[in-house]
Design goal:
The protein is mainly β and about 525 residues long. A hairpin with a 5-residue loop joins strand 22 and strand 23.
Amino acid sequence: MIQTIPAARSRFFSPFQLLWLLAALFALAACRSPQLADANITISVTADAATRTITIAAGSTVQQALQSAKITLGALDRVEPPLYTVLNADDAIKITRVQELFETEEQVVPFEKQIVRNESLPEGETRLVQAGVNGLKEITYRRVLEDGVELSKSIVKTIDLQEALPEIAMIGAQSSFVPLSIPGKLAYIAGGNAWVIDASTANRILLVATGDLDGRIFRLSPRGDYLIYTRKSAKPADKEINALWAVRTNPGSKPFFTGVTNVVHFADWIPGTSSIAYSTVEPRVTAPGWQANNDLYRYSISSGEKKKIVDASTGGVYGWWGTIFTFAPDGRLAYARPDGIGTVDLDGKAFKPLIDIVPLNTHSDWAWLPSLTWGADSKTLYFTAHASPSTLVSAEDSPFFDLNAFSFENKATMTIAQHSGMFAYPSASPSRPNSRERQYQVAYLQAIFPEQSESSRYRVLVMDRDGSNRQTIFPPNDAPGLEPQNLVWAPGQINGQSGYFIAVVYQGNLWLIDAGNRQAFQVTGDGLITKIDWR
């Protein structure tokens, strides 16, 4: 048997295999990073006012170079080029040391000097009412330094350590007006300061002399022993509009800050308590300068406690403008907003709509709010309503406004004064003495030009609670009218007069008008009065 022995494998590659092997080796070599064994480069580093040369491995980044040089960077330091940059020979690294320093210093605030005219002093007599006291504030600055050179210095925080008190000198400006005895206390704002008249128009007490009362809130407590008021804020308008303060009406009392800010439309005393209710807004850069929260809070004067009554809401049509409120003598609360009026369920913390009102389209950055007041019996609510137009003008553009009354006894609404004007501001008198049915009068403003009531001046009219016996009491028909304002009734009758008095601001002065015989008395003559209240 013959065996066949296989031939031995050749130990040599064919030309084709050799070419394939060489191609594979070249491809493998191409996939590997080039190796620079023992290659170094020299660079320069400038930091802390010194430049030095260092040697590092080729291919190093700026961060690796700084680590090699044992240079530590601060959180604000700048490096050029950036830390991730791969360096080449003879490159330069520059480090700029940046420092942020905060420094605090105390600064004296010089007191201002104020001169106040007082008609209760003889002409030319001067009296120092309050000695000036410098204030003190703490200012924190932020300084930024680069390589030891200051680039900027700015104020980051200011704290008032002590408020400056102005020096107030009172100069007599004796007027020829005859003093008049009055019931209760009558408070007014003159030249941004708060005054109170006690018992007689000749007895005037300066309560607040800061000169910055804005008049948005100015209300005496029911007993006349406290005054709440708002002061303009010194902060930017988009941060804070004003602040709510309070002061006792006794001479020499020191005002105190309630901690409440941004109160534009409403703050008033809650009947039968030592607390106030208020509503807030959020400051805005755009007109009108705020966005109303349409909320309601309670603040206790005695304890300083704050409590939310009603949550914030959109407030209906044109709700960005805000909501106003008014308390009835029995403690019930009514509200008015651009599209209607209603009451507030204090227990349920909710608004209860009562009457829808067609909102006024002002075609501007303000909104009209119905004015309203309770009758002395707490059974009737008087309010201005946007009336229907007499032409084809749309309802929202109607120029007419009526004075209406809503009776809670029979759930009926009636018009008691047609075309009164948009700023009628009805106000009910106290009940007449010895009146079984709590009879009272209602005063309101009547536009001289009802179709242009936005710009028209007004006259004061008084009527019985049902709208009867209407008469114009001030000013005379041949005299200019009043600027729109809230009318304020006296808390009681003045001896020797026929009816209750109404206090008004006329041509910048305080006037008292007897609603019974229409006799008017001018109280001040300096033309500085802007706001009044009487309790």
